[in-house]
Structures are given as structure tokens and as C-alpha cells.
Amino acid sequence: PMIAKIVTHADTREQAIWRMEDCLSEQLVFPVKTNAPFLLRALFSDDFIGARLDTGLIGRNPDWADAIVPSQSALDQAALSMLHRSADNLPIRVPGFRLNAPDRSEVAMMLGNEVVKGDASQPAVGVLQLDDGETVWLNEAGETFAMRPFAASGTGQASAADGAIIAPMPGKVIAVDVSEGEAVTAGQRLMVLEAMKMEHALAAPFNGVIEGLAVSTGAQVQVDAVLCKVVPAGE
Question: Cβ distance 215 to 167 under 8 Å?
Fold first, then answer.
């Protein structure tokens, strides 16, 4: 669905394009996905800049729709935010205290079902950020990324790194594509969650077998609910 329309104007086409770039780059929309990254790629194509437009333009440039991955700068910004949040939660603060140990600034986070790492000692440039509970939402090049704290196995907390399929937000399960004990492959769709009038497909993080399937079609779930788990084959 269309949620907004952006119009820019200026004395020249080039100036209007740069104003549009500012608007698209600085928008921060979540959890709804937008086509801002696609529009930015189209905006700076030679054909668009030169006003050489026809109905085949998009078809000739399928790469405009390719997925965007966050840069290391964006990951570093998220790491810095999570490190500060952890420090804020300490009952006693000891700024600058070190007991002959190296400064640990690398932070592991979850991006979807993948573990990513950021360096909290590196300042980030050109990245918009908003903290929402445990989630850090980042905008880069028009794309919004949701970073969550990484919970290593053995901590008592479920995490996608352990194969747990976790509800990213409250919603309704509108499709379950697997059954208990079924073998699945990395990237295979397991179920679909409807939230904020949008559908969110949840996929297997790696090859394995479904265990602990806890939901069925029509179930209402809360954020961070463990919906099922993918266990590596042979375990």
C-alpha cells in the first residue's frame, strides 16, 4: 500500500533530484518496508538524470530491486547504541575502569536470522538511528534495518543463532508451512506472521529439522515468542 508520496521541486532538474535524495535517504520507516532504496537507485541513473524515460526503464535495470545489506558503519552505530544501553542498565557505573584488560568494543547482534558484528569504538556517519526497546532501527541509503541483541546459546534465552524462530513483533500467524520433525533447508519459508497489516515471512536460518512447533494458523503471538526451533540434522 502507498503510505506516502514525496514531491520535490527546484529551479533545475539536478537540484530537485538532490532534494529528493535528501528526503529518501533520511526517511526512517518501520516495521513496514518501503521502496526507498529502489527509488534512490533509479534517481541517480543516467537515464533518469537525463530525463530519458520510457516504459522499459525499470525492466532494463532489475538490479535496482536487489536487497541492500547494512554497511560496516551502520553495524558499528548499532553496536555503539547497544553497548551504551548495556552500560545504562548496570546498577553501578565505573566509567573508564579497566583491570589490565583490553577494551572490548566488538558487539554481536542479530539481523534477521544472521549474526553480525559491529565495532562500538568506530563513529558512524550518515546513519539515522532510533531505539525501540531492545531493537535498534537504523536507516542507511533509504533502507531500514532492525538490529537486536545476540543471545548466545546456553544463556537461557532463545535466539535465532540457536535455531529458534522468534516472533519479531506481536501479530497473527496466517500460514504455517512446516510440521513437527520436517526437514528444512536454509532460507526455506517456515511460516508467515501478519503484523501492522504487513506480512512477514520467517525462514530457516540453516539446514535442519523442525522441533517444538508451538503455533498453528490463526494463532496470536507476542513479540519474542519462540514459534518453533530448527535443530541441525543429526543432533
Answer: no
